[in-house]
Specification:
By secondary structure, the protein is mainly alpha-helical. The protein is built from three helices and no strands.
Length: 87
């Protein structure tokens, strides 16, 4: 898959999920998708994802829940993985 197609696929998936995150970087968008598709924790009290958001914005620098997903996303982009192949 070429880089432009890869970027378009991620953009389309994110737009379907939540158009409010379109201002995020490509890595941020992919991190959100990875979290949504792979987090196995209870989101009432087991996952800190929502608690790390401030004024509806994702905190990529300080969050224990956010940062690992951002790193996964950066690695996936670097290796041109698809959402289906990310571990």
């Amino acid at each position: 898959m070429d880089k432009r197609d890869y970027d378009k696929e991620i953009e389309a998936l994110v737009f379907e999920r939540d158009s409010r995150i379109m201002s995020e970087s490509l890595a941020g968008k992919l991190a959100i998708l990875i979290h949504d598709h792979s987090c196995g924790y209870n989101h009432t009290d087991g996952c800190g994802w929502m608690y790390e958001m401030k004024n509806g914005l994702h905190d990529w620098n300080h969050g224990e829940a956010h940062y690992p997903y951002l790193e996964k996303a950066r690695k996936a982009i670097e290796e041109s993985e698809t959402l289906r192949t990310i571990k």
